[in-house]
Amino acid sequence: MKRLFGMTGEEASALAAATAAHLDIVVEALVVAIVIGVPLGILATRSKAAERVVLGLANVFQTIPSLALLGFLLIVFHGQIGKPPARAALVIYALLPIIKNTILGLRSIDRGVTEAAVGMGMTAWQRLMIVELPLAVPIVLGGVRVATVSAVGMATIAAAIGAKGLGSYIFRGVSLSDVRMILLGSIPAALLALACDAALGEVERALDPKQPKHSRIRGSLASIAVCILLGFAAWGWWNDLPQRGGRATIVIGSKDGSEMIVLGHMLADLVEAHTPLKVDRQKFNLGGTLVCYNALKRGGLDVYVEYTGTALTTILKEPPQNDPKAVLERVREGCARDGIDCLDPFGFENTFALLMRREQVEQLGIRKISDLRAHVATIRGGFGPEFMNRPDGFPGLVQAYGLHFEQSPREMDRNLLYQAIAQKSIDLGAGDSTDGRIAVFDLVQLEDDRRYFPPYEAVPLVSAATLRRHPTLRAALNRLAGKIDAATMRRLNHEVDGKHRDPAAVAREFLRDHTLLNVKTTP
Amino acid sequence: MFVFVPEGQRAIGNHNRVHSSTPTDEARNRKILTIPFLSRGPFAIAMSNDSAAGPSAVAWRGVRKAYANGHEALRGVSLEVARGELVALLGTSGSGKTTLLKTVNRLIEPTSGEVIVLGKATRDWDPIALRRSIGYVIQDVGLMPHMTILDNVALVCRLRGVERRARQARARECLALVGLEPSRFESLAPHQLSGGQRQRVGVARALAPEPALVLMDEPFGALDPITRRELQEEFDALRRRIETTVILVTHDIREAARLADRVALLDRGNLVQCGTFDELRDHPASDFVRAFLQETTALGSSDPEDRS
B205-238: per-residue pLDDT in tens? Predict the structure, then answer.
């Protein structure tokens, strides 16, 4: 327990800043949603057709799964990551409750009040401003409250596209299977939701003319709470403003997963040690290849690490190839067209690896995948669902090597495979070639002698414009070229995944051990 | 048509009198319900000064109202209401009395025929200006729940751009006029008042801008018999003093008899008979009039007040 909540001062202030950034994006989104939603709600009460259109659209928006919406918004925002698309997503989700409650609030106004207002000679505008909106405010605020609470939750997902906030703790915690980090993100988020709910609930009650008034103390406490929350949000907003002066900063991002985070820290450390640049590490652990690549294209990121095979198939949308050199060349050409430089590979591949127990491999004399053909009668396979179904997974493997296993393989969770092989539940599985558990369970990767699996070499992608602006950057980033083999990467991953060590510390330790940070020892 | 105008109420035509003293201090020093109405004071509504417009406050001329579904709410009604007169529009529900009333402040537009209000056809009036010139009291009262009693009464003056201090003074005056002591009631919220008190505020609100004409749609219909009786009596005294024209919609023949100078009886969109209550009772124009008065009187004998 002590490890859960014992925080260093630095950690605590980082958490406070993340909470403020979180609240800031929620407040900004709600302000926009109110500015858009209330007029739309008013419009909907003026005509049946408008109501159908407005409510229909708001309902449709509400049903879009959040990740799909974020993905869609990345396209709309041309790959820009961070606050703008995340805020837009929150606005879209906040619209429905606000529009609905505006309509409800306007509709629930007593018929007599409306008739009196018309009869005494109010113009439509006066009716709206003097009578209808003030009377609808408590109900509209109810909608704002619902929207706020769900936006606090939703804003955690925004970390997937690089928005600051508590979500980055949760995502990183999930990637690193670090319970403490997940709690560090989710407990403040839950408290924030409760605080917003309670504070807005009090304001709502205070504004309702029909509710009995509470004691003054309670009212002032609520106003103080609202002010504190808004002040906190303002602090988050201030922190997010682009810093003027000081050292020039570049943004290094990373895809999700501990391997990517460790590599991101390594590149960042190298840049800070060998160039005058400062590195922004806030955009680590982004959700997906295209998020990172489009951000790089747009200038939201300056550097991130990609696998060549993924770049070829996912980014360039070309069929897989087997020759690592050819793939790297194709990726270099393709990226260059987007103004992106593909630097030199680090020296390891993270590809599918067919894994077996060391003792069984030695006993049967198996070294290569083609050696399996002699044992198709006895070997029991087990694969993750993705591998089982991808054409470049199991079906292709069977064809390429002519492996017709007599027992059809078991489909199981990819994360359980390593242990299942070690415990002899299965004999053969497909894992990630750099997964730390290969070493932990003493498994052996069979050689892909026919180069069936496309090469997935890890390589830094850098914005060409950034390289031109900072001539020392290329050399700093290329210091890692050829320095990390698969076994090393496995060990580093295990430090993070297995031993729950801080990825930044693991990265720094590696660089120190290889004297890569030392300015005098040029490689 | 014979227009009955009670003696002494024609004085309302004299509307060019300029009021010079401040209403506030005067009002404060007087007892409730004895304040003279500051007719044609600073809040008075600009009425048509054209004497050629004739003496009538409202004149309906062949007013028809037909709806798209073929229902005919009004089938050619002609009626004149003289300045200073109180005319009750009487009839069963569905007789068209409320529809007729709402053609006056253009809440309903007639299909054909015309309505002359304060010397000008309603279609020539800007509806907003027209409504601000007419007091409107409805059964639901319709007080603004988010405003104090004082702000409610001052609301029409606010719409007309009367400066804050002046309109609040006027609102206090009107509260006193309807028997609500301003110091006790002005800062309360509508939901803190009884039904009868709320309707008093409704009347005060209608009177605040010193309208030349007040429309009342079943104003006392939702009140208990005792309160209703009380308000009817007070209103009767009040309106005689302030010399304003009133058109009152009611289905209660006793209310009509008690308050109205003339009664206009409607049936299925037609004006059946118009005259003083005594005329209708003693010389009914048709069997329907006879039956209507008899039935109501019979009902009234067993349950004299509660007819709502």
Answer: 999 999 989 999 999 988 898 989 999 999 999 9
Give, as one character, the DSSP assignment of residue B35: P
Alpha-carbon distance A277 to A250, whole Å?
7
The answer to whether the pTM exceeds 0.95 is no
Residue in chain B closest to A131 (alpha carbons) equals B144
- Summarised one tens digit per residue, pLDDT across range B149-173 is 999 999 999 999 899 999 999 999 9
Structural domains for chain A: 2-240 (1.10.3720.10), 249-348+457-513 (3.40.190.10), 352-445 (3.40.190.120)
Flag whether residue B140 sits within 8 Å of chain A, measured between CB atoms: yes
Domain of B86, CATH number, reads 3.40.50.300
Q: Is B193 on the interface with A (CB under 8 A)?
A: no
- pLDDT at residue B13, as a whole number: 37
What are the residue ranges of helices labelled H in B58-163? Answer: 97-102, 127-132, 149-153, 155-159
Total number of domains in chain B: 1
Distance (Å) from the alpha carbon of A42 to chain B's nearest alpha carbon: 19
Do B140 and A114 make contact, defined as CB atoms within 8 angstroms? no
- A523 three-state secondary structure: coil
Q: Tell which of B139, B153, B155, B158 to mutate to test the A interface (max A CBs under 10 Å).
A: B155
A463 or B29: which carries more pLDDT confidence?
A463
Interface predicted TM-score of the whole assembly (ipTM), two decimals = 0.79
Q: Which residues of A touch B191 (CB under 8 A)?
A: 209-210
Is residue B18 one of the residues assigned to a domain?
no
Q: What is the mean pLDDT of chain A?
A: 87
> Is the CB of residue A361 less than 8 Å from the CB of residue A438?
no
pLDDT-derived band at B272, boundaries 50, 70, 90: very high
Asked if residue A339 lies in contact with residue A467, where contact means CB atoms within 8 angstroms, the answer is no
Q: Say if the Cβ atoms of B142 and A210 lie within 8 Å.
A: no
- Which tokens is A433 given? 């070639």
- Among chain A residues, CA nearest to B160: A121
Cα distances (Å, whole numbers) of residue A47 to A51, A117, B241? 6, 20, 46
What residue numbers bound the domain in which B146 lies?
56-301
- Specify whether the CB–CB gap between B145 and A119 falls below 8 A: no
pLDDT tier, B9 (very low <50, low <70, confident <90, very high otherwise): very low
Selecting from B129, B131, B144 the residue whose C-beta is nearest the C-beta of A119 gives B131
Nearest Cα of chain B lies from the Cα of A121 at a distance, in angstroms, of 5
Residue A110's closest chain B neighbor by CA?
A: B142
| Contact across the interface for B141 and A135, Cβ inside 8 Å | no
Contacts of B104 (CB under 8 A, 6+ apart): B58, B115, B117, B122, B134, B213, B215, B247
